[in-house]
Amino acid sequence: MAEVTLSAAPTGDGQERPSRLMRNPRTWLAIVQIMLHKLCCWWTLAKPVEWRTARVACLGLDGAGKTSVASCVEGVKPSVQHEPTSGFNCRNARVAPHWQLDLWDLGGSALIRQYWSRYLTADTKILLFVVDAADRARFAEARAALDGALAATDELPALLVLANKQDLPGAATTAEVSDALGIAAGASATRAAVLPISCARAAAAGADAQSASGLSDVLAWVSSALQSISHVDDE
């Protein structure tokens, strides 16, 4: 768009006076709006995002789909077939508006569960506990594992149970998972919730991680929880 120069109009005595256009209040309003717009654009470009680090643990029984969920949160397409996690994986994921997650994906076998408490450090902000919603026979085992993990922490700011594999026949609803794990009765966390998710379908279809069903709600919950936790920590 071409720039328009607003010059003063000459008078008979050789002096200049503002043109009629410059005396119009609407002209000044337009100029102010343009300047404010340029200032806002400059501020947005000049101020990069300052990422804040948050430690998040991802636990669950073996076969629950922890690694697939962690991959989806990280933004990496989950693998259709992968070896069970024998120890731990540390991933990095970014969640809007400014969160850099140190995401600890821990193995879920009975042998490894005894070491979970070592990774639930005092700076852990959120525990993601993944449950195979289609494997009702292991709900009691999952509850015992979750109770053991929570008992090992003095104070856990937030707990999010993920009812995974919702695309499988007979998968339990979030209400059923909440009841089976005792979340409705009150968990040892300031914030607790159960959300559905399914990363396996995205992997089988060869789709990217963002297409995983329920992922957007999970990321929104994580972001909201971290915002609330950070406000408490800053006080």
UniProtKB/TrEMBL annotation:
Keyword Metal-binding: yes
Gene Ontology molecular functions: GTP binding; GTPase activity; metal ion binding
Binding site for Mg(2+): 67, 85
Chain sites annotated for binding GTP: 60-67, 108, 164-167
Ranges where the record places region Disordered: 1-20
Keyword Magnesium among record annotations: yes
Keyword vocabulary terms for this entry: GTP-binding, Magnesium, Metal-binding, Nucleotide-binding
Protein's recorded name: Uncharacterized protein
Protein species of origin: Diacronema lutheri (Unicellular marine alga)
Lineage of the species this protein comes from: Eukaryota, Haptista, Haptophyta, Pavlovophyceae, Pavlovales
